[in-house]
Each structure stands twice: as C-alpha cells, then as structure tokens.
Amino acid sequence: MMQIQHPRTSSLRLVLWCSAVLSLCRCACAADSTGAALDSLLSFYSAGLSHNTHFQASFTQSRYLAMFEKPLVSTGTVSFSSPDKIRFHYKTPFESVILFAGGNMKRYRVESGSYIEQPSLEIVAKAITREIVRYLSGSFTARDFPYSVSVDPKDKRHITLVPTLSAAQAVFEKIELRFPADPLYIKSIRLVEPSGDYILIEHDAPSFAPLPDSLFTAVP
Amino acid sequence: MKSIVTRALIFFLACAACTPPPLTTQRAATPLEHLPLRAGIPRELGATCDILVHGARLRTRARVGMSADTVNIALVDEFGVALAQAATAAAGVDIVRVFPPASRETAVGAALCIRAFLLAASRRYDRPGTFAAPLSPQHSLLVFASGAAPDSLHISIDEKLFFAAYLTPSAFVALDIARDTVLVFTPDTVLFEYR
Which residues contact A213 (CB under 8 A, 6 or more apart)? Predict the structure, then answer.
C-alpha cells in the first residue's frame, strides 16, 4: 500500500538526510589516518544505528566455499530489537526460524506450518549471532569492542573489523561492513574465514518500525 | 488419511530397502560401469539434507560437486557454518572439516551415501538387474534396478550390510539399520525420471 508523506515530514527527512550526508562528508574529509577521525566516523555510524531501536529487512545469505564454484544461497527476513534480540526467518531453500533473546537461542524448522525445534546450535553459530547483534546495535565505540577497525580510504562507507581476541581470530580473519548513505543501516556483512572462505549477508528493503517483543520469544 | 498411507508406503519401502542382499547376489552383480553413462548430470547441485544428530533430525543445506573421480560434499547450517565438508573418491573419504553438532561419523556416512547416490545416478539403466561398484577400499555399492531407474541401493562394508537406501522421484533416503534414518537428501535437480 502506498504511503503519502506529509510535506513537512518530507522536508524534515530531507534536512536530516542532508545533515547526515554533511556529517559523513565532514568525517570523510577529515579522515586522514588519525585515530580521532576514525573515532569520529565510528561515532557517526554508532549513533546512526543506535538511533533505530528496531530494524527489519529482507536478506540474502551466500556461503562461499573454495571447493565449489557456486555459493550456497538462502533468503529470508531478519528482525532486530535493540539491544540484543534478533530473529532470522529463513524462507529458502527451506523454512526455518532462529530466535535469540537474552542470550538464549532456539532454532526451529517449519514443516507444513508446524514449528519443530531443532538440536541446539553450535558454538560458532551462537558466536556469529552475538557478533551480528553487536554490529546492528552499533556498539563500535564500546570500550570492550574486540576488533581493530579500519576504514577504506576510497570508500568511507566500507569498514573492516579485525578480531583482537585469539578465539575469534581462529574463526574469522576479518569482518567487512558496508553502509548506504540514507537511511543509515548495515547494507552488508562479509565474514571472512582464515581459509578465505566467507559468508556474505546482504540486507534489502529496511524498515525501522517498532516490532512486538513476542516476535523474538515465540513461534506460532 | 493420506499421511497414514504415505507412512505405510515409506515403511514398506524402508523394509524393502533394508532387506540385506544375499552375498551371492553381491558376487553375481554386474559391474555398474558396464552401464552407459548418462548425459546431463550437473557438475554441481544444491540440496536439502536431513542428518541424524544425537537422535534428532537436523536439516541442513547441502552442496555437491563432481569432478572426474571425486565427489565434494558440504553440509551447511542456516548461518552458513560448514558442519561437514568432505571429498570422496575410490580411495576413501577425506574429511576436510567437521563442526559440532555434526560428527566425523555423520560426515563419513553422509559422504558415502551421497557419493553412492551420484554413482547410481550417473548411469543409464538400459536393462534391469543388480549392479555393483566399489565406493571405497572398505565399502561397496549394490544397485537394484527393475526398470529405467534404480529402485534401491545397498552399501556394504566388508560384505556386511552397512547402509540401505531407497529412491523416490524427489528424494534419496539412506537408512542405517542399526540406528535410524541417517540421511534424507533432496536435490534441487531431478536426477531420476520414473515412467
């Protein structure tokens, strides 16, 4: 259904958008190799992401493995509620739901409309979920953020995180995040393993409307 | 009602597939390589693959790639975590990687079954019969075909039945008699056409 925006709302959005772009440009212009410029850019992304307490988008996840020519692709919808609730609803190649709330995680496969609980997730999947929650909530400037961060000098909307903890280094060599200009959200996450294999998650059609709590704790 | 009929059919097929082939049958089987190769088998295909983990069925995404003499297999969970990666050839199964909750045993079983399935699918059944092929130094494959496609497969280890499997137009189900259903492999490409 088409939504008609009030002219004042449109103007406000335009002002906010211009302000965001100007802020980004300021950060980008100032972003030499100094830590202050990097901190400023990260603060900008962090503030932009944490401003939206809810986030929902469709996603395409592609798993690239060196032993195959084509990736394994799955699609679905991700829903996020700040600070730590997330729901993945996979639609293809088969329907399944993963709920993560308060540190607890449950996985279901959906067959003929019935939700069948699956064996508990392994450590790596839990770790990936925790990290995705961390990025979506925009906690790049937290003191305990366990990554060294760098920004692509040619593209300020592309940041690279390199794990600083040895346990994480064993799983991921680096994580790359991309941000579009407006609205500000994480467009893609690329999790690169030490072997060079990687997982690419791309978000589309973002929405920031409030989401009910029940979405993250229960299945029908 | 349909569900009961379907379950009964599956039970019947499972029983049929689980009936151990007599050793004389194995020895009298025609080598699978005597059948002509089929054209049009894709080099790489995707699938869903249910495996048994700690007694519970776990649904995974699967990718299978074939080269001249090797079949590469990956079972990947929703997050993209590669639970099992293996390369199988006549020399045996080489486990590239296993992550919990999958185990080495799961990976070997799945790799053997999927390679058996692809070996059987790679031939054109121009006559009914029983056909045999080596799967690994320890395992061999026996294919029963009554028409233009195989009806059931048996994998034996040192001439004792190890796995049995039956085929439907859309899925390949491998059974481990000692435990439970081990693997339901549903390729996104139809490999068998039943008339």
Answer: A81, A85
